[in-house]
User: Fold this.
Amino acid sequence: MTPSRHSDAPAPPAERYAAARRRQAASRTELAAFASGLGFELDDFQVAGCQALERDEGVLIAAPTGAGKTVVGEFAVHLGLAKGLKTFYTTPIKALSNQKYLDLTRRHGAERVGLLTGDTSINPHADVIVMTTEVLRNMLYSGSRDLDRLGYVVMDEVHYLADRFRGPVWEEVIIHLAPEVRVVSLSATVSNAEEFGQWLGEVRGSTTVVVSEHRPVPLTQHMIVGHRLLPLYSHGGGAPEAAPGSAGGDDGAPPSEPAPPLNPDLVKAVRAAQRAAAAEGAASKSRGGDGPQPWRRGGRAPRRGAGGARLGRLRPPSRLTVISALEAADLLPAIVFVFSRAGCESAVSQAMAGGVDLTTREEAERIRQVIDRRTAGIPTTDRGVLGFHSWASALERGVAAHHAGLLPVFKETVEELFSAGLVKVVYATETLALGINMPARTVVLESLRKWNGSAHVTLSPGEYTQLTGRAGRRGIDTEGHAIVLAADDVEPSLVSSLASRRTYPLVSAFRPTYNMAVNLLGRTSRERAREVLESSFAQFQADRGVVELAAQARRERRGLEELEARMTCHLGDFREYAALRQEIAEAEADLSSERRSARRVEAGRSMASLRRGDVVVYRKGRRSRHAVVLSGGEDRTGAPALTVLGEDGRVVTLSPDTSPDGVMRLGCLRVASSVDIRRREHRDRLVGRLVDAIRSGTLSEAPVRKRRRTGPAQRRGEADSRSQVTTAERIEDLRRQARAHPCHGCPDREEHARVGRKWAKARAEAARIMSRIETRTGTIARLFDAVCEVLLQLGYLEPVEEGHPEAELRVTSAGRLLARVYAERDLLITECLRSGLWDALGPAELAGAVSACVYEPRLSAQSLGLPVSPGSRLGRVLRGELRVSRSINDLEGLGRIAHSPGAEPALAGAVAAWARGAELAEVLDATDMTAGDFVRWAKQLLDVLSQLAGLVPEPDADPRDAEALTALALTAAEASLDVGRGVVAWSGV
Assistant:
């Protein structure tokens, strides 16, 4: 704090009087009344945010995790109650909603606070309601009466609008809220907070932006090398902070400061550990003989350090070593981030096997009491399959896992015990960093790489900051600690680059959806709907980006001119020749892709003629596996798909995608129609027969049946074969043109060609930039028009003036049905309803069918066990859903819209079995799914089923359609009761 220049002299009387008046006025504000009940002094950024709210302005707070942003949100709740207005407190995830509901209930009383999530409704008409953002979006579109008197909306973790799956909902809410509603946006520190705040000001009116880079509890960075815990930096230990109140750059980023120098002792320790690893490796090789060195056979050559010393591969310290180091340095409790669920469970098992015990006898007794209270409703019969006893034993010793695959009641128990300081080490996936209040003294990162859904990637600085932000408990710890384990690919310089950078912008993921389109057009004109969408943050960022793209295009053009000068040829225009060579390279890539497609089709043909009982061999990785065919069908692309039972007892689905080498038929076994693969004894008996037949060579040699009628995938394969010939002919023609070109005889041809390749690449990049410039303006509105075209084709919209679909549009009765379906696959669900595909299904079958419109597999596996018989009613419906998905995707392809997710029937058998009353052990035993995952998907299924149960026919609907919809709504209500039992019903709030 800067000292006053007149600190030793008394202030003039007028100044003292003015200061006294200000203090008197401040003491009478709502902020003063609110602050008096907190028990701690507000930070400057909290005061600034609260004062903006009291001035009747919106506010955006961007501050580090754990800084206390939610205080400003809680002040909005206080203001709303004081003024007799409602306040909605929205969060991105249900766990955070539950936590905030409990916090506000303790402060304001249960009678004034409500909770609304997809499957929970408590006191829904209260003056303060905590809800997930999707619930508020649905209320806005349905015109709910609960929006009356709404004065404040708190959007906690608003940076979630960058999430590509759920982010658009946040922008929908911000755009559609009534103008008089004040929005309180709470965000993690992002580098473009000013840009986001400027957009909020445009769509919501006056909005104050408050950015704080200051951590209330300082963070010290460390690394563990072997058994040693060492600071990352040579002094201070923490990453640099932006000065409070300092101005950012043009993009709103805090000013960059150079990172402190690395700790030389740490660098030496890492190098020493690498040399020791190299020496150990050399010693083990000498003990094993003088065989050829691997790098001489094309492997990785040994790395060399300073002075040419050989460096070995550095392995991270063991989990037991890490716990010992944390305990010895008094750095518990700690959250250890492991970027896989299996890794979290494995870590707990290793700790238990290693004899870790971090609790006293009194603490273990308190833990047992919490466990008993939290899990009293779990039947004894289900505890074994849930892994209850090993979970509880680990908790009593102070160790736990926390990930999305845990049963909700288990997860909530871990959160309570860790917050109380009873559990000392939690192994968690990154989902724990999303706002749940579980601060620790220390955060440990086992790795700096994670799986992002398609590849293993290094953490971004923003992700690193979000994860390590959990370290340091305000009011308990004087400093927090972030620890990274030194390993072969984790150097101190890499850790420093993540810890010291402050560039992590918020990027909009907004896009128009089918439900959004019909809801907008049901309330306003097409032109007004386009204007609303063009006010999105996505379009705001796109328009600002055009200026930068234009400058980039100018730089690319200058680069092209320089390259053209370098490849000038005296024999002719080398640009023409370079373009020919580039065309040849692209055509060869096309030919390679066509050959892969033909190989896929050939694999499909090897599967198309197979039937129940056929024994096949297929490749899985490097191994060949045997299986017996249970049923045949088609995948979502129309390609053949086989459901098989493997010799390992697992039920899997084989398709040209999962088995590109195809399958080979060895013979057949007789598999009676009475064999029910859902029953373990039937599966075990059939696996035994399969293994015996393979070993004894007694497989029946029944003749191969006639191949099925050619399907769409096979027809595409034949077209691909013809295309290969065409592409090969085109390549030969291009080569002839290249050989005939004057520049082909140039003595410097290859040198020019090397420059030409750079030129071709730069030319393509320049064309791409120009295309982006052309498409940036009006991007969202054009996408909205494409969405409307799909809805026109399917009958959800119709032109007001017949024959003019480009003009004003009207929502049809089908569109009004779609407007009431809120789910990611809204159009697929509505198409299934309209087509009558789900009519006449029983409750369990309907639950299984709807699950295919909800479930998304974490991996590319197409089956989870408990398969559905293709000849059954549910099996026929699931095939129908796949056909509907393909027809929607075909229309999207014509409109150049990204394909929406299709039906995913992998969970249908398990859901149907559960709805029929199957035991939890039976369902989980036959799937690769944890109890927590099953419950999570069942809860999402219940949300959609409850929507279906609430559907009411329109007054002027066709009587037969009205009767069918009413019957389906009743069936959906029964299905909700059948699914929402047992483990699915247990949930703490």
Observations:
- The chain has a mean pLDDT of 82.
